[in-house]
Design goal:
The structure holds two protein chains of two kinds.
Chain A lengths: L1 E5 L4 H12 L4 E5 L4 H11 L3 E2 L1 E3 L5 E3 L3 H7 L5
Parallel strand pairs in A: 1-2
Antiparallel strand pairs in A: 1-4, 4-5
Chain B lengths: L6 E3 L5 E3 L7 E7 L7 H13 L4 E7 L18 E2 L7 E2 L12 H9 L12 H11 L15 E4 L5 E5 L9 H7 L1
Parallel strand pairs in B: 3-4, 4-6
Antiparallel strand pairs in B: 1-2, 3-7, 7-8
Classes of the chains: A alpha+beta, B alpha/beta.
Chain lengths: 78, 181
């Protein structure tokens, strides 16, 4: 399952979500402002509190809205 | 009258009197969004880490009257946002800092310390002036806040000692801070 860690009113998070939708990728959103559990997961994964963070295996992740890196992570073709 | 006469709201919506900071040296700064490229957050945090034990407090007031980005940093645009702005000093509720709708605290600060020009030697000075001329020419006139990260230094008695424009890097304020600590 693809997870997207996000914040409320974070334009880059919105862009990632929109991009994944456009590619037909199902994901679960985890807002780190609304849940301490999600915040902890995000900190553990990245060592930081910056989002959007996209991951598929809780190990490799992409920070920010970077189409090329997202494509690589999720093995998407253009 | 001093800054202690003002009450502001924290980012959790709670009222906070600046009199609670009596005896501290303060930096009051208008900050930008949590998403732009804003190296000054990092530098302010470094000042805070260095001097908080000696009595420095930094009070950040987010404002979006100046657009989302710092000018002239397009090549370094970040595509992420940070929870809590990545800082541990106090961030207050988002509000206006210039014009009729400015928070009273900022009306007071800008009346106490006037605009004396940008530091032309700073790398962003030329770009900032250009960006203001193009987008907010009226901002260049008068003593109002010109852009994100205008910093006011307050002594332990609540007097506004000095104003630093966005073109002063926080680390360059160290000598002035030390004089007050």
């Amino acid at each position: 399952m693809v997870k997207v860690y996000s914040l409320t009113s974070c334009p880059w998070c919105d862009k990632v979500k929109k991009y994944l939708k456009s590619k037909g990728v199902e994901y679960e959103e985890r807002n780190i402002e609304e849940s301490d559990e999600f915040l902890e997961e995000c900190q553990k994964l990245t060592g930081d509190e910056a989002v959007p963070v996209t991951t598929i295996d809780d190990k490799n992740f992409v920070l920010g809205f970077d189409k090329a890196k997202l494509d690589e992570l999720l093995k998407l073709s253009a | 009258m001093s800054v202690y006469d003002f009450t502001v709201k924290t980012n959790k919506g709670e009222e906070k009197s600046l009199a609670d900071y009596k005896g501290k040296v303060l930096i009051i700064v208008n900050t930008a969004s949590k998403c732009g490229f804003t190296p000054q957050y990092k530098e302010l945090q470094e000042l805070y880490d260095k001097y908080k034990e000696k009595g420095l407090e930094i009070l950040g007031f987010p404002c979006n009257q100046f657009g989302e980005q710092e000018p002239g940093t397009n090549e370094e645009v970040q595509t992420f946002c940070r929870r809590n702005y990545g800082v541990s000093f106090q961030i207050f509720e988002k509000g206006d800092v210039r014009g009729e709708t400015a928070q009273p605290l900022f009306k007071y600060l800008t009346a106490e310390k006037k605009f004396e020009g940008f530091d032309e030697n700073h790398p962003i000075a030329a770009k900032l002036t250009e960006a203001l001329k193009a987008n907010f020419p009226e901002y260049l006139e008068g003593d109002g806040i010109k852009w994100n990260f205008t910093k006011f230094l307050i002594d332990r008695e609540g007097n506004v000692v000095k104003r630093f424009e966005p073109t002063t890097t926080p680390s360059d304020m160290a000598a002035d801070i030390e004089k007050l600590l």
